[in-house]
Q: What sequence folds into this?
C-alpha cells in the first residue's frame, strides 16, 4: 500500500499515520473474518448446504403405482383402478397459514367437522417431525372433478395445496363378492411401523408405507396386499418457496431423475363371474351364502355372501354415520358368513349320521326302520318331520324324505362320540383352510364337550338331537361345501379362490395348485347307500328336493332346515313368525352324481324350509354351470376351427 | 493513470491530471459485477413487461458516475465551505421525511421525486462526513490538547442528531452506518484514550439497556443470529435461507442464473439487501473472494487517499468515505453469511437502489476529488 510511501505533501497531522496503519490492519482482519466464514460455509459445509438447497426446491412427488387387478377365471376385471384426484397439503409450504388453508379447503370440499379435525391432526403430526414437513399429506381422497376445478382456480390462496392424480380402487360390482374381495383404507399411524418392518423383513423392494396411503383391509385385498401393491415411483418437481411448481429450465431433472412406478401383480380368481352374477341374481335371500366349488380341485366357482358392505364405500369414503349404521345393523353386514358364522346344519347333517351309522356297523345298507311319526327314549319323545309317520324307511327313503326317526334311532345307538368322530373325518369341527379371512371352526360336540359345558353333563338323548343336525352341532357354510365335496369325490379339499398371480403383462408369476386335506376311506356299501339317499332326495317324488330336480343332469343333494329358536308343540308357518325367529334353509348338493364336477351349498338365513328356499337356487346354479360349460366348449371348438388351417 | 479522461489531455494540466485511475477501475469492476448479478437476481422479479432492475441500476450508475465526476471537478474546499449548509439541508430533509415522507411498509424513508424516490437518510451519510470533517478541520487549528468528553459534545451531536432521526424512521441499518461512519472519523481525531474507553462503555451499557426497547422483529433477529436454526421457518427463515444459498455455492458456484435459492425465491430481498447471497450461490467461494478483494482494494485505496490528503478536511472526509464503504460492505456481507444479525444495510454498488448508488458515487467523487488535489496547495 502506498500508505507508507511517505510522499504526503499536505498530510496535516503525523498522528494519523499509525492510526491509518491500525485501521488498515483492522479492515483486513474484518475481511479475514468474512473470508473465514465464507470458507466455512462454502468449502467446509458446502455439500450439506447444497443438499439443503435441493431439498428446498425439489419437492419429492410420489408416483403412485397402479395396484394389481383382481380378475375372474376368464380374466374378467372385477377390481381395477379409476383415475381420481387426492387433495394434499404440504406443511412446509403453507407455513403459518396452514390452519387457514385447511379451513378454506373445508368449505370448498364441504368437509364434516370430524374430517376437518382429522386434517388438523395430520398437519400437527407433519409439523412435529422435521422430515415430514416436506411430505404432502392427504386432506381428502377422491375429490370430484368440479372440486378440482375450484381448487385450481383458487390456487393462489391455497399455498401448499396440491391435487395429486391418485388411482383409486374401483370395485366394479360394488357389494357383489364384497366379503371375498374386501376393501382398502388408510393406514393408521400405529400400524405404519409394523407394516414397514414386515416389509423390510420380507426384503420387499416396495417402498415404505406412508401416512395416508391405502392398505388392503379385508378379504383378498388384505390377504394379497403385497402381491397387489406395486412399487411407487418418484419424481422431483422444482418448486418456489411457496411450494408452487415453477418451470425453470434446467432445474430438477438432471440432479434427480424420475423413477417410474411399477404396477402390482394381478390376481386371477377361480371364480367364474358369470356364475357369481347369476347366483347373486337367483338367490332370493336377505342374508345368506351360496358357495359353488369345483369338485375336482376345491377351487371355488362362486361365493355369494350377503349382506356385504360396498367396498367402494368402505374404501375411505364412508361417513361416521354410515359406518355406525353398518355396525348397528342386526343383519351384521360385516360378518363373512361363509367362514365366520356358526349354523346348525339341520337335516344336511343326516348324511354324516348315515356315514357314521354304516361305518360303525350300527346299520347295514339294507337296514329298515319303522317311522310312526315320532321317536321315544325314556320320557322323551322326538317328533318326526312328517307327523303322520313315514312307515318303513331304508337309507334311500330316510335321506330322500328326510325322515327324522330313522336318524334318531341311528343317533341313539351311535352316541355323541361316534358322531363327532365321523363329523371330524368329514372336515367338520376344524378350519377348512380357506384363509382369506379369520375362520371359525364350528362346534362338534362329543361326550366330553357336553360334560364340560352342559349342566348335568352328557345325556344319551343329546345324540338323538345331534343326529338330525340340531343340538349343539354347529358348522360353517364353507365346511358344508368341503363335506359334500368329500361325499361326492372322496377327497377333502382345502377350498381356494386364488388361481394364479400374473404380472402386468399377463405372464404367470405363481400358480396355485389344488390341495387335498385328506381322502375319505369309506366302505363301498356306505358310499353307495348315502349316494342313493342323496339322489332320492332330489330325484324321487317323495324327495324333499323333488321340485328342484334337473333334466340335464343327475343332482344329488340334501335339504336342511335349521331351527333357530325352540318351537312349541305346533310348527308355525314361516310367515307367521318374525324374521329373526324363522329357520335357516339349507341345501347342499353335487352334480353330476356319477362323476361330480360341482358342489353347491346354499344357506338362506331365516327363510324357513330348505326345500323351498335354498334348493331352487342350487339347482339353477348347477344348470347354469352346465350351460356355461357347454357354451365354453362350443366357443373353444369354434375358436379351434377358426384358428385351423 | 489507467483511466485517462479527456480533461487531463489538454496541454496545461487539467483538474483530472491526478485522477485516481485505480479506484475508478475497482469501482467499474464492482459495478459490472453488480449489474450482471442483478440481471440474475431479478430474473423472476417484477412484472414481465416492466423494465428489468438491472437496466435501471445501469442507468443510475451512468447518471451518478457523471454526477461523481462533477463532484470531483470542483475543488473540495468548496464543499468544505458549504458543509454546514449541506448538513442543514439534509437535516431538514430528514425532518420533512419523518413527518411527510412516503410510507412504504410501515417506514417513512422516502421523498417521492417523480419516478425516483429519494432516501434522505442516504444523504445523511454524506452530510455527517462533510460536516464532521469541517468541524474537526476547524477545531484542529485552535485546539492544543486532546479531546475530552466535553470537547466531543459538538461532533457527537453532529453524528447523533441525524442518526437518531434515521433510527426513528425507522431505519436501523442506515442509522448504524451514519453513526459508524461518524465514529470512525472520530477515532482518527486526537481523543483521549480515557474518553474512548468511557464512550465504549457507554455504548455497551446503552446497547444492553436499549435491547428491551428494540422492536420485536429486531429482537427476533438478534435471537435468530445467536441461534439461526432455532426457528428455521419463522424469524430465522431469512438468515437460514441466505446461509443455505451461500453454502450451496461451494467452491465455484452453480453458474450465472443457476442458483435455485435465487430462482425459486427462497431468498429475501434478493436484489437489495441479500444480493450478495445470489452472487455467492452462483459464483461460489471464488466469486466471493474476487468481490471481497475488490471491496478491500477500494477501502484500502480510500485509506491511502486519507493518508495522502493535503489537509485535515481532506483527511477526515476520506476516512469518512472509507468508513462508509467498510461498514456497509462488512455489515451487509456479515449479515448475509450469518456472521452478524440481520439488519437492513445495502451492499455498495451491488444492491439495487438509486439512493444507494447516488450516495456511493457522490462519496467516491469526493474521494477522487481529495486524491486529485493531494498536491495542490
A:
Amino acid at each position: 500500500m502506498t500508505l507508507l510511501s511517505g510522499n504526503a505533501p499536505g498530510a496535516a497531522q503525523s498522528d494519523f499515520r499509525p492510526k491509518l496503519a491500525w485501521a488498515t490492519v483492522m479492515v483486513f482482519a474484518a475481511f479475514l473474518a468474512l473470508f473465514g466464514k465464507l470458507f466455512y460455509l462454502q468449502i467446509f459445509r458446502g455439500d450439506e448446504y447444497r443438499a439443503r438447497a435441493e431439498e428446498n426446491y425439489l419437492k419429492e412427488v410420489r408416483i403412485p403405482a397402479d395396484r394389481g387387478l383382481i380378475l375372474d377365471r376368464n380374466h374378467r376385471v372385477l377390481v381395477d383402478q379409476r383415475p381420481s384426484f387426492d387433495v394434499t397439503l404440504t406443511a412446509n409450504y403453507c407455513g403459518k397459514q396452514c390452519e387457514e388453508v385447511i379451513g378454506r379447503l373445508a368449505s370448498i370440499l364441504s368437509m364434516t367437522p370430524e374430517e376437518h379435525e382429522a386434517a388438523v391432526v395430520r398437519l400437527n403430526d407433519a409439523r412435529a417431525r422435521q422430515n415430514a414437513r416436506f411430505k404432502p399429506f392427504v386432506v381428502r381422497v377422491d375429490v370430484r372433478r368440479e372440486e378440482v376445478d375450484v381448487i385450481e382456480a383458487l390456487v393462489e390462496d391455497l399455498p401448499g395445496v396440491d391435487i395429486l392424480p391418485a388411482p383409486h380402487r374401483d370395485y366394479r360390482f360394488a357389494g357383489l363378492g364384497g366379503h371375498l374381495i374386501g376393501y382398502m383404507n388408510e393406514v393408521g399411524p400405529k400400524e405404519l411401523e409394523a407394516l414397514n418392518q414386515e416389509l423390510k423383513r420380507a426384503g420387499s423392494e416396495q417402498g415404505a408405507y406412508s401416512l395416508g396411503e391405502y392398505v388392503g383391509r379385508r378379504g383378498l385385498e388384505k390377504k394379497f396386499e403385497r402381491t397387489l401393491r406395486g412399487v411407487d415411483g418418484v419424481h422431483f418437481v422444482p418448486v418456489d418457496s411457496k411450494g408452487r411448481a415453477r418451470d425453470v429450465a434446467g432445474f430438477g431433472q438432471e440432479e434427480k431423475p424420475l423413477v417410474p412406478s411399477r404396477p402390482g401383480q394381478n390376481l386371477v380368481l377361480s371364480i367364474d363371474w358369470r356364475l357369481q352374477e347369476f347366483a347373486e341374481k337367483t338367490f332370493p335371500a336377505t342374508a345368506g351364502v351360496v358357495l359353488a366349488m369345483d369338485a375336482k380341485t376345491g377351487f371355488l366357482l362362486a361365493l355369494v355372501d350377503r349382506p356385504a358392505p360396498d367396498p367402494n364405500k368402505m374404501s375411505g369414503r364412508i361417513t361416521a354415520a354410515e359406518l355406525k349404521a353398518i355396525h348397528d345393523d342386526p343383519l351384521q353386514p360385516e360378518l363373512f358368513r361363509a367362514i365366520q358364522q356358526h349354523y346348525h346344519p339341520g337335516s344336511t347333517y343326516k348324511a354324516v349320521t348315515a356315514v357314521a351309522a354304516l361305518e360303525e356297523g350300527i346299520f347295514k345298507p339294507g337296514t329298515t326302520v319303522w317311522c310312526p311319526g315320532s321317536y321315544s327314549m325314556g320320557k322323551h319323545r322326538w317328533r318326526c318331520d312328517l307327523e303322520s309317520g313315514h312307515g318303513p324307511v331304508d337309507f334311500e327313503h330316510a335321506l330322500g324324505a328326510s325322515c327324522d326317526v330313522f336318524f334318531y334311532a341311528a343317533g341313539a345307538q351311535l352316541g355323541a362320540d361316534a358322531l363327532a368322530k365321523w363329523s371330524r373325518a368329514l372336515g367338520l369341527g376344524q378350519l377348512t383352510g380357506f384363509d382369506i379371512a379369520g375362520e371359525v371352526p364350528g362346534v362338534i360336540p362329543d361326550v366330553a364337550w357336553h360334560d364340560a359345558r352342559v349342566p348335568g353333563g352328557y345325556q344319551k338323548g343329546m345324540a338323538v338331537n345331534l343326529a338330525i343336525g340340531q343340538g349343539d352341532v354347529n358348522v360353517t357354510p364353507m365346511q358344508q361345501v368341503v363335506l359334500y365335496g368329500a361325499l361326492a369325490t372322496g377327497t377333502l379339499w382345502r377350498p381356494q379362490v386364488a388361481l394364479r398371480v400374473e404380472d402386468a403383462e399377463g405372464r404367470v408369476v405363481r400358480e396355485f395348485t389344488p390341495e387335498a386335506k385328506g381322502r375319505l376311506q369309506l366302505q363301498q356299501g356306505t358310499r353307495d347307500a348315502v349316494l342313493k339317499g342323496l339322489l332320492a332326495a332330489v330325484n324321487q317324488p317323495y324327495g324333499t328336493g323333488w321340485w328342484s330336480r334337473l333334466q340335464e343332469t343327475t343332482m344329488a343333494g340334501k335339504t336342511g332346515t335349521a331351527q333357530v329358536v325352540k318351537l312349541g308343540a305346533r310348527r308355525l308357518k314361516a310367515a307367521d313368525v318374525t324374521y329373526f325367529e324363522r329357520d335357516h334353509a339349507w341345501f347342499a348338493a353335487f352334480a353330476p352324481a356319477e362323476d361330480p364336477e360341482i358342489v353347491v351349498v346354499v344357506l338362506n338365513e331365516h327363510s324357513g324350509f330348505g326345500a323351498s328356499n335354498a334348493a331352487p337356487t342350487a339347482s339353477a346354479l348347477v344348470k347354469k354351470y352346465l350351460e356355461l360349460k357347454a357354451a365354453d366348449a362350443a366357443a373353444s371348438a369354434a375358436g379351434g376351427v377358426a384358428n385351423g388351417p | 493513470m489507467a483511466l485517462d479522461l479527456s480533461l487531463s489531455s489538454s496541454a496545461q494540466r487539467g483538474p483530472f491530471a491526478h485522477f485516481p485511475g485505480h479506484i475508478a477501475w475497482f469501482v467499474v469492476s464492482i459495478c459490472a459485477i453488480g449489474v450482471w448479478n442483478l440481471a440474475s437476481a431479478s430474473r423472476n422479479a417484477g412484472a414481465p413487461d416492466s423494465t428489468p432492475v438491472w437496466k435501471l441500476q445501469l442507468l443510475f450508475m451512468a447518471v451518478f458516475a457523471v454526477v461523481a465526476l462533477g463532484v470531483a471537478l470542483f475543488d473540495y474546499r468548496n464543499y468544505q465551505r458549504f458543509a454546514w449548509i449541506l448538513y442543514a439541508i439534509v437535516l431538514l430533509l430528514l425532518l420533512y421525511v419523518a413527518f411527510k415522507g412516503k410510507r412504504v411498509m410501515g417506514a417513512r424513508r422516502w421523498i417521492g421525486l417523480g419516478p425516483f424516490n429519494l432516501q434522505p437518510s442516504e444523504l445523511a451519510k454524506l452530510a455527517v462526513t462533510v460536516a464532521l470533517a469541517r468541524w474537526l478541520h476547524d477545531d484542529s487549528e485552535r485546539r492544543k490538547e486532546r479531546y475530552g468528553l466535553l470537547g466531543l459534545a459538538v461532533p457527537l451531536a453532529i453524528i447523533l442528531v441525524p442518526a437518531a432521526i434515521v433510527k426513528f424512521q425507522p431505519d436501523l441499518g442506515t442509522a448504524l452506518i451514519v453513526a459508524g461512519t461518524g465514529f470512525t472519523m472520530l477515532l482518527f481525531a486526537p481523543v483521549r484514550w480515557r474518553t474512548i474507553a468511557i464512550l465504549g462503555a457507554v455504548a455497551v451499557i446503552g446497547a444492553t439497556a436499549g435491547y428491551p426497547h428494540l422492536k420485536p422483529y429486531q429482537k427476533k433477529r438478534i435471537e435468530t443470529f445467536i441461534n439461526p436454526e432455532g426457528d428455521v421457518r419463522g424469524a430465522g427463515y431469512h438468515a437460514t435461507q441466505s446461509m443455505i444459498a451461500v453454502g450451496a455455492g461451494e467452491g465455484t458456484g452453480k453458474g450465472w442464473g443457476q442458483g435455485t435459492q435465487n430462482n425459486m425465491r427462497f431468498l429475501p430481498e434478493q436484489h437489495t439487501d441479500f444480493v450478495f447471497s445470489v452472487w455467492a450461490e452462483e459464483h461460489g467461494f471464488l466469486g466471493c473472494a474476487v468481490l471481497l478483494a475488490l471491496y478491500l482494494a477500494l477501502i484500502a485505496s480510500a485509506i491511502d487517499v486519507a493518508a495522502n490528503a493535503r489537509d485535515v478536511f481532506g483527511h477526515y472526509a476520506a476516512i469518512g468515505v472509507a468508513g462508509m464503504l467498510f461498514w456497509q460492505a462488512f455489515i451487509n456481507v456479515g449479515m448475509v453469511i450469518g456472521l452478524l444479525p440481520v439488519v437492513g444495510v445495502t451492499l455498495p454498488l451491488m444492491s439495487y437502489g438509486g439512493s444507494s448508488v447516488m450516495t456511493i458515487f457522490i462519496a467516491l467523487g469526493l474521494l477522487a476529488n481529495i486524491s486529485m488535489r493531494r498536491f495542490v496547495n
Q: What stands out?
A: Chain B touches chain A through 57 residues (CB under 8 Å). The radius of gyration of chain B is 21 Å.
